[in-house]
Amino acid sequence: MTITGDMLIGAQSVRGTESLLQAINPATGETLGPDFGGGGNAEVNRACELAEAAFDTYRATTPQQRAAFLESIASGIEALGDTLIQRAHLESALPIARLQGERGRTANQLRLFASILRDGRWQNATFDSALPERNPPRPDLRMQRIAVGPVVVFGASNFPLAFSVAGGDTASALAAGCPVIVKAHSAHLGTSELVGRVIRKAVADAGLPEGVFSLLVGAGNVVGTALVSHPAVQAVGFTGSRAGGLALLHAANSRPQPIPVYAEMSSINPVFLLPSALAARGEDIGRQLVDSLVMGVGQFCTNPGLVIAIDGSALDGFRQAAVKALADKPAAAMLTPGIHRAYEQGVAQLCALDGIHAIGAGAAGDGPNRARPALFETTAERFLADERMQAEVFGPASTLVVCRDAAEMLALARQLEGQLTATLQADDADHAIAADLLTVLERKVGRVLYNGYPTGVEVSYAMVHGGPFPATSDTRTTSVGASAIDRFLRPVCYQNLPDALLPLALRDGNPLGVWQLRDGKVA
Amino acid sequence: MTITGDMLIGAQSVRGTESLLQAINPATGETLGPDFGGGGNAEVNRACELAEAAFDTYRATTPQQRAAFLESIASGIEALGDTLIQRAHLESALPIARLQGERGRTANQLRLFASILRDGRWQNATFDSALPERNPPRPDLRMQRIAVGPVVVFGASNFPLAFSVAGGDTASALAAGCPVIVKAHSAHLGTSELVGRVIRKAVADAGLPEGVFSLLVGAGNVVGTALVSHPAVQAVGFTGSRAGGLALLHAANSRPQPIPVYAEMSSINPVFLLPSALAARGEDIGRQLVDSLVMGVGQFCTNPGLVIAIDGSALDGFRQAAVKALADKPAAAMLTPGIHRAYEQGVAQLCALDGIHAIGAGAAGDGPNRARPALFETTAERFLADERMQAEVFGPASTLVVCRDAAEMLALARQLEGQLTATLQADDADHAIAADLLTVLERKVGRVLYNGYPTGVEVSYAMVHGGPFPATSDTRTTSVGASAIDRFLRPVCYQNLPDALLPLALRDGNPLGVWQLRDGKVA
User: Which of A4, A27, A454, B247 to pair with A68, CA 20 to 30 A apart?
Assistant: First the structure.
């Protein structure tokens, strides 16, 4: 499959003329061909109108049809083989093995939503029987969830496959019955086009209207804001910076009809080292934490950017082991020159704050866009006094915050902003402190981990990749895992409709075989 | 039980000193004692701090404990007996029988949420088994939904019991585990205090922290904005005007940490009269529609403010019957002088528009705040050309819109704003048009009715009292029925936690006996 640099607007390949974009190999700084043409308002309008035109037909497909469609996308991505992996590697500097794993996750995500569609519980088909004898009589009431409408998805820089063109947002929105318009991330334009072409072919093969999927390319925020402001668009999925997410949220709230924005933005993922665990295995934790910190050059939303421990001799073992482990970690190329620049600035800003100092660093590295891992240390007192220490530094940097005692650790937990994750390193003797921390942290995060490290997000039923603001803009849901489909559905009730006019999921005899709740009981 | 005019801030009765408020009997214009003292920032802060302090204890109660608590509120409201009904009647001018029915609905709502709590499905307990042999190993993942935090509820003018102090928003938030702060509607201050005292006693009897419930009183929007802006508050329930809902939404979005606002605002609830039904029973429909229109002096969120039909001789029968039925309907006192003033203005503004004219009216009436029912007529062409005709006139006014043909009816449906309900009056021969309309209307409304009238909202599992903007500010949920609890919950995932540290709903052996999803299958 050839990369052309065109946008995919429904069935058409369209050359953008508003701007010129080029993919860059961040490991070398070299430009990668071909040139891409960025779109403007005309292309945004065209993609949105096609999506709107496709919506009623697409949402009327059966869950089984959409499941087969998602599976054909998964197979199509796998069939791209090495072409996709090589291009993604060139565009992201991510290792081949990592990208192969990410491709597997991407296909699994699509297949998970296919199985969710077949299971039918997602539709929440609910029946309240008529009670004609009651005074007043109760009508026959039936409820299902339906797709909200066309959805705009912004590809994320740090998952060129699993959270990009055919990533979690796209998979869950398509599963719900929503047409999707993807704004490609400029960090992996060629990867985006390759995957976009797979989806476009799957749309055509399934006989679906072309507007079910479009892929736009554009410079800066112009295309993104235009997409979020278009009246046809009914929801937005985004993973990226806090500033970017807030800008989309502002645009969505400024519409005549506001729409939900699911923005996953910023998280420093505190790791709490409790005393007994620290004493028993502080050195192991130090080494493992550094491994988690530098994984993927620290470019995970769940990267452990904050480590919190109580002062004492047990902490020394952890600190020494972490510093020693870090020294062996090589500098590595980040995803884009912009991300590398922001990392360098973030590290410099931390260094410049009062009461914080560097205690360790990775090896210096040659070549462009190399991030050198960094470990800082401060006291809880200083940390609590300066909220700038809570700002996310995207990349392999973390701050060790030293508390006087458990009470100060708890006070620090209370002051944290919303996070995607929090982690406890704890042993049995730590349970009392752990229980107190859990009560605080449950309110701050989407996922609590015990004796693990926050990087690594399972795609499953129980996963929550979400959390209170500013981790996300909407704490009621998740962007990873089965519940992600909830974001793109809304309930509709049907009162006394004749069977022939009812949606299939609500008809007598359950022709779709969906999960049903009847008069409050699971049928 | 005596009405004192105090606010109930936790266990304390507090005399507000920021403003003086008086209840008014809208049927006579007379002031009702006692005087109420409105609160300010000090009382808002105190109530919010108490709610925050109560939250962790309250959310840690078992679902069974909260169920018993809700049931004790229901019994307490019933035990108020005639005292409550008489006061509500004086403050609202609503008939005694209506208020008795509304009291029943209020108690039933509380008991429905008690049964939902005992059923345990609301918690969405989800388990993904560890897969230690997989590469990489999968951890043990468990997910539940937890309460979001303190919730602010604004009492609605038009349901002094069922959507006020112990109404649907309060019941669903308390069920979820959220402390509630109610801002009393100034239209029924005494009713609010009576019910508030019942809740306060139930809090004390259950041994719950006092901050689980507070009732504030205040003039204008000051107290409301301060409540929505307070950092402890995590969600808002509101039923009222579009301007009021949008103001709260703006305040919530302007916070450093935005929070969800569930505002139910404005709806004109279109009723479509399809040709065959109109020919067969146009006169019956005319009479029944007028009954629905004037019920409760038209002061229902689901009042049929728009009737859409195709021109022809069949329409004449409907029109004549409706006009004749309307002429017999007496003018009746509205809920407040302000609501009556707004109704008169709304009717006058409709009259002043080009191409719309009055075709019927109810009887004129004596006494203050009387609303005279009104029926207007216009053409689809004029209606589509002037969006002011879509503005809600809260009260017993409706507009008949005459279409040339089914195509114009469909075009009109497409132009409608979001609504709580849409109704089809249709017979078997109308199914083709009905199916086309349903495809459009599903996207516009929360509930579709067939051969009924939109007034009358069942409190049940399948009910959706919601809909796209501006019907509500959040189309993903409902403010009436079992799903209302979803608004005040968020998911949290627990990774590899030891059983002793897990929340009860997620422990091995299922000590709470909740509904469970295990590895994608209902257990």
Answer: A4
Contact (Cβ atoms closer than 8 angstroms) between residue B454 and residue B421: yes
**Distance (Å, whole) CA A152 – CA A263:** 12
pLDDT-derived band at A220 (thresholds 50, 70, 90) equals low
Has residue B120 got a pLDDT over 70? yes
The 10s digit of each residue's pLDDT in A254-305 is: 999 999 999 999 899 999 999 999 999 999 999 999 999 999 999 999 999 9
User: Among partner residues A253, A435, A447, which is closest to B253 by beta-carbon distance?
Assistant: A253
Beta bridge partners of A321: none
Please tell me which of the candidates A121, A447, A492 has its beta carbon nearest to residue B446: A492
- Dist CA B302 CA B465 (whole Å): 9
The reply to whether residue A142 touches residue B462, judged by beta carbons under 8 angstroms, is: yes
Grouping H, G, I as helix, E, B as strand and the rest as coil, residue A491 is strand
pTM of structure: 0.97
| pLDDT at residue B429 greater than cutoff 90 | yes
Please report the DSSP string for A151-210 in residue order.
Answer: EEEEPPSS-TTTTSTTSHHHHHHHHHT--EEEE--GGGHHHHHHHHHHHHHHHHHTT--G
Q: Which of the following is catalytic: A48, A102, A193, A301?
A: A301
Residue B323 to residue B374: CA distance in whole angstroms: 9
Residue showing tokens 């100092």: A357
Shortest alpha-carbon distance between residue A4 and chain B (Å) = 36
Cα A459 → chain centroid: 11
pLDDT in tens, A53-111: 999 999 999 999 999 999 999 999 999 999 999 999 999 999 999 999 999 999 999 99
- Are the C-beta atoms of residues B77 and B71 closer than 8 Å to each other? no
Q: Which of A21, A17, A49 is closest to A34 using CA atoms?
A: A21
Backbone angles phi, psi at A492, to 5 degrees: -135, 135
Can you list the pairs that A221-227 forms with residues at least 24 positions away whose Cβ atoms lie under 8 Å?
Answer: A221/A247, A222/A18, A222/A40, A223/A38, A223/A39, A223/A40, A223/A43, A223/A44, A223/A183, A224/A154, A224/A183, A224/A248, A225/A251, A226/A40, A226/A41, A226/A44, A227/A44, A227/A47, A227/A48, A227/A152, A227/A181, A227/A183
B511 contacts B120 by C-beta, under 8 angstroms = no
CB pairs under 8 A between A and B: 194
Say how far apart CA B512 and CA B62 lie, in whole Å.
8
pLDDT tens figures, B313-338: 999 999 999 999 999 999 999 999 99
Complex ipTM value = 0.97
For residue A365, what pLDDT band results from cuts at 50, 70 and 90?
confident
Sign of CA dihedral A298, A303, A307, A313: negative
A301 is a catalytic site residue:
yes
- Tokens found for residue A51: 């999506």
Identify the DSSP state of A382: H
What are all long-range contacts of A255-260, with beta carbons under 8 Å and residues at least 24 apart?
A255/A228, A255/A229, A255/A231, A256/A231, A257/A231, A257/B418, A257/B468, A257/B469, A257/B470, A258/B249, A258/B469, A258/B473, A259/A228, A259/A233, A259/A234, A259/A235, A260/A235, A260/A236, A260/A474, A260/A487, A260/B474, A260/B476
Written in H, E and C, the secondary structure of A300-342 is: CCCCCCEEEEECCHHHHHHHHHHHHHHHCCCCEECCCHHHHHH
Q: Residues 86..145 of A with a Cβ closer than 8 Å to B: which?
A: 115, 119, 121, 126-128, 136, 138-139, 141-143
Q: Which H or E run includes B61?
A: none
The two tokens of residue B314 are: 């069949």
